[in-house]
Amino acid sequence: MKRYLYVIATSAACLGFISCSHKDKDSKSQASPDILVAEAFTDSVVLHKTYPGYLSARNSATVVAQVSGRLVSMNYTPGTYVAKGKLLYTIDPTLYRDAVNKAEAALASAISSRDYASSHYNAVKKAFEADAVSKMEVLSAESSLQQAEANIKECRAALSTAKTNLGYCSVVAPISGYISESTISEGNYVDGSASPVKLADIFDNSSFNAVFEIEDSQYEMMVGRNDGVGGKLFRAIPLQFRENLLHKYSADLAYEAPSVNKGTGTIKLKGVVNNIDNELKDGMYVTVSLPYGENPAAVLIKDVSIGTDQLGKYIYVVNDSNKVVYTPIEAGELYRDSLRVVNKGIKAGDRYVTKAILSVRNGETVNPILNK
Known about the structure:
Layout: H1 2-29, E1 34-39, E2 41-65, E3 68-74, E4 81-82, E5 87-91, H2 94-129, H3 135-168, E6 170-172, E7 177-179, E8 189-191, E9 197-215, H4 216-224, E10 237-240, E11 249-256, E12 266-274, E13 285-302, E14 307-309, E15 312-318, E16 324-328, E17 330-335, E18 339-344, E19 351-353, E20 367-370
Parallel strand pairs: 1-20
Antiparallel strand pairs: 1-19, 2-9, 2-13, 3-5, 3-8, 4-7, 5-6, 7-9, 9-12, 10-11, 10-13, 11-12, 13-18, 14-15, 15-16, 15-19, 17-18
């Protein structure tokens, strides 16, 4: 009997120990999880509105053929940099060289005729002084000399034109820049005598214009500022591209159209962009973040703390009871690359979950740890 009671006592002690162990485990499992939070704060922020635009080379030129003939050589590699004055194409110069020779011969003949007419005129004048010829012969000799002088001018003009056309047989780069593919390959006939024929384009990529259009009402807001469109606010306007580039770019507002487009109610603006390492190209699409004012007390939170669902943007706020509250927000623009302006949904001083937002749930009690 004593042995039986001992076994029962031992079993009860074991059950008690096991029960306590389970309680400890349950207590630990029910402890509030540690969650990093931050407090929303305010700061003075320059407000921007984004506009679609494109890049346009500030200096570009079209390479053209201005004479007719067979293209005998192309002396560049498409897509490379060419210096101003570099020989790009050669058009068969045979006909134009012959034209120069012919014009030179005509000029020599005209000079010879002028020299004879000048000698004859001088002789006739002397004869007239001796009463050996009539006044009419003197006038005739003078007219012949004037015609010879005029003929020389015509021959010189013809020679200049012939030399110019011969020079057009060597097509050189009108500016320095990066050249496109040729529209005509070697061996083909180019008919450029009637009107210039395009051969290629050259783009000076050292700087671009970021071209975009804004509403006339937005323009009025810009003009209404004390510093106007030429003020400091419109320097270093942020630019974004479809993909992240190696460098960051901005533009200085440099041009505003003199009139509003009546069809669209917009005005064209241009900002100067300096190219870095030839990274930008003519025609690239760009988003211009145009500043239009300042908010001296904008509410800011960390951008990584914002989630997105079917209802829009949201964050998890931790209230005074340390409970997680699902909170929809109206997100504004990005600030200093990592912060986001919040227009509605949260106020300065509110605590919000900064990390692991997918691991918390609405209504959950947490142990907030302030992450400064």
